[in-house]
Amino acid sequence: MEMNGGQALVKALECEGTEVVFGLPGGAILPVYDPIIESPVRHILVRHEQGAGHMAEGYAHATGRPGVVMITSGPGATNVVTALCDAYMDSVPLVCITGQVPYAAIGTDAFQECDTTGITMAVTKHNFLVTEAQDIPRIIHEAFHIATTGRPGPVLVDIPKDIVDPRNPRSAMTWYEPTDDIMELPGYRPATAGDPELVRAAAELICKAERPVLYAGGGILKARAAAELLALAELIDVPVVTTLMARGCFPDSHELCLGMPGMHGNYTAVTAMQRSDLLIALGARFDDRVTGRLDGFAPDAKVIHVDIDAAELGKVRVPDVAIRGDCKLVIAELVEAVRACGGAGAQPDRRVWRSTISGWQERYPLVYEQSEPGELLKPQYVLEVLRDSTPDDTIVTSGVGQHQMWASQYWRFDHPYTWINSGGLGTMGFSVPAAIGAKVGMPDRMVWAVDGDGCFQMTAQELVTASMERIPIKVALFNNAYLGMVRQWQEMFYEERYSEVYLSYEIPDYVKWAEAMGCVALRVESPEEVAPAIAKANEIDDRPVVLEFRSSAGENVFPMVPAGQSNSDIVVDPSQR
Amino acid sequence: MTAAAPAGGHAAPADRFHTIVTTVENKPGVLARVASLFARRGFNIESLAVAPTADERFSRITFTVDVASSSLEQVVKQLDKLINVVEISELKPTESVERELMLVTVAVDGAGGRRHELLELVDDFRAYVLDADQSQMMMSLAARPARLDEFEERLRAFGIVQLQRTGRVALPSLGS
Prior knowledge:
The structure holds two protein chains of two kinds. By secondary structure, chain A is α/β, with parallel strands linked by helices. Chain A has 22 helices and 20 strands. By secondary structure, chain B is an alpha+beta fold.
């Protein structure tokens, strides 16, 4: 079938199962936007390309399907770089289509030209510059294949205008079915199952360990291995910590769940890893926010490290057993191998370890003081009420900062894919667009964006997108008039010398702003107003809602392992010292 | 180490430089991907040589990497993640033949004795004279990198005007 490159591109996206594209048109991508009119693919018109990228990430996190972005050349492409880098750091499958100036004009500093593949090389798993219309279906198929297999990640496809413009003879092509056998990727061999001998060695270590901890990372969710993890944990009866990227992969309400480790992890999760004699790291990457000072991290622990990316094995901590493979397959193999070693019956007596852990849990729970009458709200309290007034499969997205840490600490994640945040890059402004993407992918689920006032001001304009596209997300905006996490560091480590962290309670007026963007908005200032406001928000399902919670500015996130210090030096809440 | 390994193969000093040979897809931008990876991961390239292979779909990039600053294992694993890198291997000096080419121009400032001395050196090292005039002589030498170092050292006494080395290329020894 003869067609032009623009038609082929849209058809290729349809062939990959694309149901929605987040984008914004412009000069170089114009010819592709024309066939979009006839396509069954839904297009969400964003207000800024960064928003398109984060929406696609939210969609991918929530659904497990790749998020698709389509934007123009030059500033369109540079605006999406933050989202690409975010997706790269957190291994989120995205396919980003960018327009480019006509092939013959590349290198001439043409209008809205930039070296998109050059700029995005370091923040994508791979990128392509397509030079011939005939290659479009194959390269789009390769892009989806690379984005979604192995360690997932963002892939960018740069499309010069002439090969998609029907008025240009270079756009002529003959359609063919994009199938696996036409791919030309001789250097791409994603890992699958683990080496059986290494799995056996890991099982033997497990069956000898007296103080083991399962260290579950975001790779569990990427591999869709939550059920396998549950089976392994219950078989060997070993406690599980879930990292910021893994919250929800193991139910918080399960008796083996210790919650989040790391810089703002709870005392028990941090200390259990620290005192452990065996860390079973599954799809985790020993991030500095988890390990604290590396030479003081889990000093007595042997390490089993399972990851699909060989480069993670030994990158930070040298493992005793390193298994390259897909977590879903390797954990299933591990379960079999543990059973072969005698299974549950062959585990050492770990009653002392278990009682030590429950002792920490009793002594160092998460705590905060409720506000006195007349004081501003405690964000922890608001989050507890929100948690208890929403369905337990509610999807929560978050920005970056104090509100993110409190949300991760105080929410009870009992289902995988209910927590969506920016972990590796720490991108402020992530939550609103990510919530929109998640709601588009999961329209029947309630989606709450937990946000801070600093974050909100970075990407709030996407609430216009949400209103126009009738995407009824809900935003819990914690207004403490500060860049709160930076303020906390200045208080603790810069002798309370506050430099450029004050925003304002009053400017902007968040309620008016949200209303101007087509949202229902309420301001909440006292504890007794919290539950009714949330109840009202939960009833609204035809437009976005913003609840502004006026929050106390002096509240700090605890526990905390100060940057550069050992996890053994964890600082607990002042009331527990 | 096999009997078939030629003399050039096993005399190289065990140093902090490791030779990595990669087969990559012969496509635009592949060298940039490799170079960008080295830069952003903080790896140091000592030398690098690129050229198409006998199969025009692929090129071969031979690197010498300074592993004092980063682990060889990380370099190899990160390179392997590049989609366009098809194959990657480390060539140990004892199991490979390494060669490097040097072009060098030396001052001989007219004095007959110096010129004679230089020609003897060229003979000793099995280098070639490529060009000469009243005051300068240009030579080439293709040999083991250590041999090039030695030649370079000996030429210093004459006064090196210009020097260009290619970076090493390598192939596995036969039978290794």
